[in-house]
Specification:
By secondary structure, the protein is mostly helical. Helix content is 62%, strand content 3%. 19% of the residues are buried.
Length: 352
């Protein structure tokens, strides 16, 4: 009780007494006013501290899933099983169309045989089980591998994604589409160009000495698979370089400084995956691989620019690209109009 007021309670901020039954409920008691500053005004609250880089890194790392070694193994096992399930479904679907798929595989060989101009050249089977194994087993396996590549690559991405930052996980769809697309493009390059003309070159080597080109379907299929898978994997080189740059393992400057060693390694790899040791087939593999290597450096450079919040000069790039395409079209037009060349759907796409 306050003795100075005769034992009564002090009035609240509304001017009414707490013990008055007719008084309205008191308003929320406000905090005491801030101390006056030298200018007579209220002191402003201090500005919030600037964000710390560690806090930003913590926010990025919050998107990462930390797993133990055993959990990584369990996740790897799960992804492999799911990839095999998807591959199995596609495989059984391809078995139904085995004859049609094998006919597609044989077309480059038939075109190569026809290009030699040698009659009676063709394919043979010398083992009773050879046709069953090649047509009904291995042909669906190869077809399922190509058709199921998007699903398999998605499982690969799902396995490595927990170790990436939140911003880097946004590359999931471009990674899957780019990887599967380059794999399929590599297979198409091998099917329509590299394998077709490589086999035509080899079949025609003995034409002048009266050699009849015959090949077993087992031998032909082995060479076909080596070329298709080899070139398909080689076309993944830009994605590999991009992923290494994304994980900060390499940089574009490092790749450019060591490009001569990379070209040497590319030639060695091309010599290994080439089905024959001749220079013609070696160049069919090595030249596209070198172009893909420098494409990977360009993609890595774009990634570094994005990290550093810089812009690539797209306007001059597209201007010079348009000039180059215009010159190419002009040369082709002059060749067709003045020199009577014709455009075809087969390599080299322009013949006289």
């Amino acid at each position: 009780m306050n003795e100075g007021n005769g034992g009564e309670l002090p009035p609240d901020q509304t001017g009414s007494f707490r013990d008055d039954p007719n008084a309205p409920p008191p308003a929320e008691i406000l905090p005491p006013p801030a101390l006056a500053t030298g200018g007579g005004g209220a002191r402003k609250p201090p500005p919030p501290p600037p964000p710390d880089d560690d806090d930003e890194n913590d926010g990025e790392e919050s998107g990462m899933l930390r797993m133990s070694f055993l959990e990584h193994l369990e996740e790897l096992r799960t992804r492999i099983i799911r990839a095999l399930y998807g591959f199995g479904v596609i495989f059984f679907a391809c078995v139904v169309f085995s004859n049609q798929l094998f006919d597609i595989i044989m077309r480059p060989g038939r075109a190569a045989m026809k290009a030699t101009g040698i009659p009676n050249a063709g394919f043979i089977a010398i083992d009773p089980m050879e046709q069953f194994q090649i047509i009904w087993v291995w042909t669906p396996v190869v077809a399922a591998l190509f058709l199921g590549s998007p699903w398999i690559l998605y499982q690969v991405w799902a396995f490595i994604a927990p170790g990436l930052y939140r911003k880097e996980k946004k590359w999931a769809i471009p990674f899957i589409l780019g990887t599967a697309g380059l794999f399929i493009i590599g297979g198409c390059f091998g099917y329509f160009i590299a394998f077709r003309y490589g086999m035509a070159f080899l079949f025609g080597l003995g034409k002048d000495v009266g050699v009849l080109p015959l090949i077993t379907i087992d031998n032909y299929f082995d060479k076909f698979v080596d070329v298709m898978l080899g070139i398909g994997l080689v076309f993944e080189l830009p994605i590999l370089l991009f992923m290494l740059t994304l994980l900060r393992v390499v940089s574009p400057s490092f790749l450019l400084n060591h490009s001569r060693y990379a070209i040497l390694a590319i030639v060695i790899i091309a010599a290994i995956i080439t089905p024959t040791p001749d220079v013609f087939n070696l160049m069919l593999f090595a030249v596209p691989m070198c172009m893909l290597f420098f494409l990977g450096i360009f993609l890595s450079y774009l990634l570094v620019l994005k990290r550093e919040h810089r812009q690539f000069p797209w306007k001059p790039f597209f201007m010079w690209l348009g000039i180059a395409l215009g010159l190419t079209v002009s040369v082709i037009a002059v060749a067709v109009i003045e020199y009577h060349y014709h455009i075809t759907w087969h390599w080299p796409f322009i013949v006289k």
